[in-house]
Amino acid sequence: MRGWMRSGGIFDYDRKKVKIIELQDLTQDPDLWNDPDRAQSLMRELGSEKEIIEKWDELDELRNSILVYIQFEEEGEDVEAEIEAEVARFRELLQDLELQNMLSDPDDHRDAIITFNPGAGGTESQDWGVMLFRMYNKWADQQGYKVSVAEYQDGEVAGLKSATVEVSGHNAYGYLKSESGVHRLVRISPFDSNSRRHTSFCSVFISPVIDDTIDVNINDSDVELQRFHASGAGGQNVNKVETGVRLIWSGKLSDGNEQRVVAECQQERSQLKNREKAMVMLKSKIYELEKGIKEREKQLLEDSKGSNEWGSQIRSYVFHPYNMVKDHRTEHETADVQGVMDGDLTPFMKAFLLQNATVEK
Fold it and tell me: Chain centroid to CA 91: how far?
């Protein structure tokens, strides 16, 4: 029986099954693929609903298996190890299901854009920027997501001046939205001959990749176009002509505040394609800022107005005098600094989503 799943509010099994049938009926429309964006959005939603149902069914099978083992134990058989293993697996799946079910924002299913902007501090902050760049790349690779570098500017000595990457995969934005904000590093600097402790900051901004289903109107007169020689991550030359494109929008958001938004793209050999992608990223960033305005009171999103300095960070990474990574919003922390830098970020994302789900309730 699945009554235990029906009664919990978020585990509305029957409603999900009906939703799948409704979505499958819509996919039978012969005109559906005349609108590719709508068709892809529909198929993503259908896939997501099916995935949740499959996980619920697996949980139900595990529950029945646990009940059988308990019965064996009551009859005198030594199955304690089997019960513990099944219960541990059950809890793990349940947490994953709870997390996925929390990704209910209309934009959560979208791909994500990550923008890295090191704070003041020159080489120190720029080196921290590239460390974060690698950390998120490793996390995305572990999730099976595709990462493409839209723009990357090397630092003068080490690290990066700025970078923008696109992470493609189901619920990429839903998970990564928790990462928007200023990240603070404390360590013994490898660039300091006196081996002194330094504090560095880097701003990470996450926005969903919008499509034609979202209309972001901006005036062409508010956008400045700059062209530059494209070069890849790590200083690899991609093109000696000015194929790189930088778009700068200056205007007012819906709350009346002036904002300057920059989007760059240099991944394509064609300037036209880079311009098209840069425009999508520009509109995506503006869209995220508008979302931040509308949802700021819920504290679900971080906008890009925080300065890269003390007091504005969302997370601290301490390499010295002790090892700790701590999120200042959720209080979630770990001493496994190396694991985090190798991409083990999901526990921090889960803590953020769970906290906000609790706040909403």
Answer: 24
Supply 64's token pair.
Answer: 């029945």
Q: Which residues pair with 260 in a beta bridge?
A: 250
Look-up: residue for tokens 């906290």? 355
User: Model confidence over 284-336: pLDDT tens digits?
Assistant: 999 999 988 877 644 444 444 445 544 468 999 999 899 999 999 999 999 99
Place of tokens 């778009």: 247
Residue type, position 211, single letter: D
Report the length, in residues, of the chain. Answer: 361
State the pTM of this model.
0.76
CATH superfamily of 3-102: Release factor (1.20.58.410)
Strands across the sheet containing 197-208: 146-154, 160-168, 112-118, 197-208, 181-188, 313-318, 324-327, 333-334
State the pairing for strand pair 160-168/197-208. Answer: unpaired
Round to whole Å and give the CA distance between 226 and 269.
Answer: 16
CATH 3.30.70.1660 fits 110-361, yes or no: yes
Q: Where are the domains of the chain?
A: 3-102, 110-361
Residue labelled with tokens 């840069």: 278
